[in-house]
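Troubleshooting log. The previous structure file for this entry was overwritten by mistake, so regenerating from the original sequence record. Sequence copied from the archived sheet and checked twice against the printout by T.R.
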Amino acid sequence: MLRLLPPSLINRIAAGEVLERPASAVKELVENAIDAGARHIDILLIDGGKERLSVSDDGKGMTADELTLAVERHATSKLPDEDLFNLSFLGFRGEALPSIGAVSRMTITSKATGADEAWKITVDGGMKSDPEPVSAPFGTTVDVRDLFYAVPARLKFLKSATTEMTAVKDIVDRLALAYPAVSFALSDEKKKRAEYPATERREERVKQVLGDDFADNAVPVHADRYGMTLTGFAGVPTFNKATSADQFFFVNGRPVRDKALLGAVKGAYRELMPSDRFPAVVLFLQLPHEDVDMNVHPTKAEVRFRNAADVRGLFVSAVRQAVIDGGCKTATSLSEQTLSLAETSAPAFVHIPRDTQSYRPSASYVFRENGNLFKAAETYAAPIPHDYVRPSRPEHEPPAPLEEPETDDFPPLGLAKAQLHETYIVSQTKDGIVITDQHAAHERLTYEKLRRAEGQNDSAAQYLLLPEVVELGEKKTEDLTALAEELKKTGLLIEPFGDGAVLVRATPSVLGEVDAKALIEDLAATAVEGAGTESLSERIKNVVARMACHGSVRAGRKLDISEMNALLRQMEAEPLAGQCIHGRPTYIELKLKDIEKLFGRRD
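Regenerated output below.
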């Protein structure tokens, strides 16, 4: 038998759609405060909002008649022309207050701008009182107690107070990023959990909410296309996270969590970070109201774009270009992690025997006498080469000074000073040192040269004096030769040669001298791995990446100073050289002041 549901049950059903947890109520109330023109918003939570939550603002407030309407379903002041596709407010459904009141004990106190008195109304489990006059400042305070007491089943799904507070803070953070001109304060029964003073500078609000780490490791984004504007900040590739929690998207001032935007940002960072890591971004999209539908989700957390492909293209190109324009950078947090490891590692005590007859210094090593150095060395049992001859000089002549850098005008990655373990280049900057992984860095440089050559379709090929036949087997030969036309663009010329073999006529000149047989065998294995599971473009990228590895300076190869400096200068000219093709950092910079702290030379 059909029947109409009672209003109390209808309100509870609506509350179930709008309210999942205390954070949902806070979101609705803070959005109402912003829509009311508030410039300061205070949020208070007791027991994570389960016992009590309160949102106070200094907005325009409400009269007694408006208070009465505000707790009725579908009552709103935010659709003046009744056009759902021309929205200029955050909240517009008119369901938030009646839904909250249906499942809690809610009190609303408000004083309209210019009014002589304030008014209060209560809603207890859906039962409304009449407005009554009270004393209160201008603005509105919504006090919610015993949330979900009217629907006990919902209480069972709530988490601990700490978890609920974390969810509330995430909501406040997102709204604070969207509205820097509004100040926010979030507190609980113990202390203030967040405070964001109003500011006219968006970058300042980003720093308030996300901290100096993000601000120091992000590049600005700005692009106009298709009648849309995308602005914000994108983290450098090596400043990546384990989840997408640090990705903030805003569409026409509204915080959203949209899968299409998540995918677009992931695409922008492709080849720049490991596939299981996520970039950190704060992006604001402005577009005509008629080109986006904000009313496709009960909590307005998702949106639908009229031209989704254009939006995706804008995000991918703008973020990618911003990262490129940011130049060769790695995350500053890498140096902090390095120093943290150095500080927490246990000291290693190395016993050096006095019998060092087998020790012979290299010809390039220069020993200098410096005061009582030799006496100190004997005290600590540090070996002195038995065939060392003290330099002859007057007794009181000061020791020769150490060589100073040739110039004070240090390039960004410094001047090379040494090579460690035939793998790492140590260079001196103006205020610190840089440690570079020579193979990872050169691999990225080679990869970018190959990609650019591929795009020109006429890459220089290095023809072999005698073409080489490489036996691969039928499967590998088939998969690799399927990519022959695309690989030709990079300068690699191959063709089938009988059953299960390919003939190599030329290799890319970018790679220099390479072992053609080893290169083809490696590329064939890579091509087989992606066959059937990856698109052609993805397979080509993977094969080109493997090719770059073959053409790169290997770990274990000795480099002289000029070669090391040449590699550093090439890195500075390549915007994406801060990370290798696998997404790992190619260098780490340590500031001198931080190194001095390790040795107790600085507090």
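The two ends are 79 Å apart (CA to CA). Archived copy saved in two places this time.
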